[in-house]
Design goal:
- This protein has about 180 residues and is mainly beta.
- It contains one helix and 16 strands.
- Strand 5 and strand 6 form a beta hairpin.
- The longest helix is centred in the middle third of the chain and has 6 residues.
- It is globular, with a radius of gyration of 17 Å.
Length: about 180
Amino acid sequence: MPKLKPYRQYSEYNVINGLFSYNGSVPVDAGTIVKITKNYKDSDGNISDFIELSTVDNTISSLFSCIGAVTKTVNFDDTPRPIGILLKDVREFDENGNPLIYDPRAAAERNTVLPHQAVPILTNGIILVNGIDTSNHTGAGGEPSPGDVAYVGDDGAFATDGLIAVGQFLSSIDSDGYCLIRFSF
């Protein structure tokens, strides 16, 4: 699964905020390519569309959530077309197994959102990310070189080969497995 480094170059105008929450298996890391699974307008006007009940340790509480949802791309040829990458990790528990829902400060310190919360999605920019999919999807995979086309890969990663072109590699993969990519969804 891809991980995003702090080096990023983008405009806040290219970030989708407040419309979509993450709907899929968690944890998922920042830098993961996502697609829409539920329209943000799919509400019939009932307040129950915005409230989700959470049950933890025999305590039931309501969580206000977004109607729209995204999930990571699974295959290099997924439909619908992806809309961007996650800018924050999505987690339910911290590294010690404690639920982050009870410790919002800890979630903020880890640059993490909970699955029911709105997740920021970057649609255009330059990032430093690892987990590059180098598989031969259509026969042209391998290690990226600066200037090569970046595609959507398997498991929410960028790829060196595929069907959906989303950007360009600006560097080859470094010794830590990270690569600089310019993308636009």
